[in-house]
Automatic annotation (TrEMBL), chains A, B, C:
Subunit structure, as described in the record: Homodimer.
This protein's record includes keyword Transcription: no
Name under which the protein is recorded: Dirigent protein
Family (UniProt): Belongs to the plant dirigent protein family.
Entry keyword set: Apoplast, Secreted, Signal
GO BP, sorted A to Z: phenylpropanoid biosynthetic process
Any single Gene Ontology cellular-component annotation: apoplast
Localization terms from the record: Secreted, Extracellular space, Apoplast
Purpose of the protein: Dirigent proteins impart stereoselectivity on the phenoxy radical-coupling reaction, yielding optically active lignans from two molecules of coniferyl alcohol in the biosynthesis of lignans, flavonolignans, and alkaloids and thus plays a central role in plant secondary metabolism.
Organism (species): Gossypium barbadense
Length: 187, 187, 187
């Protein structure tokens, strides 16, 4: 008799368990990152006089623009290619742990906004591999979220969100971005 | 005696349950979207005479091209940066719910085809955040599928497919794209 | 008495099972690809004299560059748009199974490195649909991994890694890339 009652209890439990495992994966997803990292990268744009130090250059511009001075209208239409050092702190002269490589395009006439497609390429003792990013960067916001769209090596199949913050901005030649990477898919 | 038999039954059940939870996630994936949305966006390309209304501009072109007229050979090589209003219906003058920002490149000599990298950036009462897209756009097809490669804010970690349809095309200055977004990964 | 003991055993089992189903999905992910494919694609860059055969063209360049000759400094800043035939073997003249369409940007001054955003667009009896790629391509490495960031049609919602190998390189006009695609998310 007691055995029968416990049996019933167990079947109820099993049913409940079975339902909970059938819930779509979506419901069980957690927004706790599986990996978090902070990096800084440093962009020195070519202005006609800094060929040696420049890490980026204008390679496309609208009719009214040119290749050495970011154009008016909030640089709308300027396309910049970059190969920027990545550091662990905000010091341009710290030993780089990798390179941020890709492009950004200023894409709005009435406010500073850019679209980014780039990778963090690591080659340090700590990390090997790459993280790929894409997304809109409304520069005037204190923080901007872009997507981690994939990764290789140590970051195999990564997905997540990166939060960009302008950490320094000097004239139209140098800027430094703090990048808080939160991965929500790790393999 | 009865207790033993029920014990056996329960173990069999447990084994079965255990197997079913081990099935690879892939098999349980459904192609039913977790979110579907329809938007329109409107592109007015700069042609030298419409600086005020233009929402996009040619910023790269092949040797035989220029920055104010889309080039011959099906515009092959023309790179266009855009910041286009997004509306809920097909009226250019409806209140925008966000901006479509990024670029397209015409990339085929013998037919109209483009490659797109852009974001929908929302800032309405209904939606905050961004959806990031990439993919090939064979313009002459009635419908073309591109990838939703990520999202932020309300669209945190989104993935899916967007179907583009040319809803209007006026000369080489204005076009309107209907965009049916189906997300299959929602968080 | 025996029934009680077995009850305890079952509850322990249930607890264990319940814990194991709560393990983050990440742990159960396998690095065995769900689909593997090998393709070659062929790039013939426009140099001012090969308009008929060229499959790609320079459409952006830094101040010191131009649109018909890849620039010095390891082509830093040259942006190339391409529409390249995809073949199943390494023969340029084999029947194409699709087109590789998109762009690459040389993005480093002291070594050949590029950033790629492109799609494989298939239209063969074997495959319909597209695979979208993004990532850094450090050309001097024998193999380079980029991300499969999405797919459509036969490759609906695909994610994975593609390994690029330079299979041939002739002057600065022709190159052939072997592309080993491994998908780890198939739907």
């Amino acid at each position: 008799m007691e055995a029968k009652r416990s049996l019933l209890a167990i079947f109820l439990l099993l049913s409940f368990l079975s339902i909970s495992t059938a819930t779509p994966t979506r419901k069980t997803r957690t927004r706790n990152p599986c990996k978090s990292m902070v990096f800084y990268f440093h962009d020195i744009i070519y202005n006609g006089h800094n060929a040696k130090n420049a890490t980026s250059a204008i390679v496309g511009s609208p009719q009214w623009g040119n290749k050495t001075i970011l154009t008016g209208k909030n640089h709308f239409g300027d396309l910049v290619v970059f190969d920027d050092p990545i550091t662990l702190d905000n010091n341009l002269h710290s030993k780089p742990v990798g390179r941020a490589q890709g492009f950004y395009i200023y894409d709005k006439k009435d406010i500073f906004t850019a679209w980014l497609g780039f990778s963090f390429v690591f080659n340090s003792t700590q990390n090997k591999g790459s993280i790929n990013f894409a997304g809109a960067d409304p520069l005037m916001n204190k923080t901007r979220d872009i997507s981690v769209i994939g990764g290789t090596g140590d970051f195999f199949m990564a997905r997540g969100v990166a939060t960009l913050m302008t950490d320094a901005f000097e004239g139209e030649v140098y800027f430094r971005l703090r990048t808080d990477i939160n991965l929500y898919e790790c393999w």
